[in-house]
Design brief:
Elements (H helix, E strand, L loop, with lengths): L4 E6 L2 E5 L5 E7 L5 E3 L2 E9 L6 E9 L2 E14 L2 E11 L1
Antiparallel strand pairs: 1-8, 2-3, 3-4, 5-6, 6-7, 7-8
Length: about 90
Amino acid sequence: MGQGKSIKVYVPVEVAFDAEGRMFPHAIVWEDGRRYEIERVSDIRPAPALRAGGQGDRYTVWIHGQQSYLFFERFATVTGCQLGRWFVERRVA
């Protein structure tokens, strides 16, 4: 049985910045409005979203004791306060 195709799902993310300007996500708001607290970020690196396509900064996050990936896709040109947007990979049947 296949695992199905994965798609990008853009999600609102609550983020904090440290004094050096680094972003640290604290919570994800899912499509249905549910809010998921990020317990910790264990890794940040440039990486492709292998299942759904795309490239960005991949944050390895832990939510309810489960590891997941959260991606920040930077805009090529920064205008105003728009730096980029967050996405996760979601499987579809």
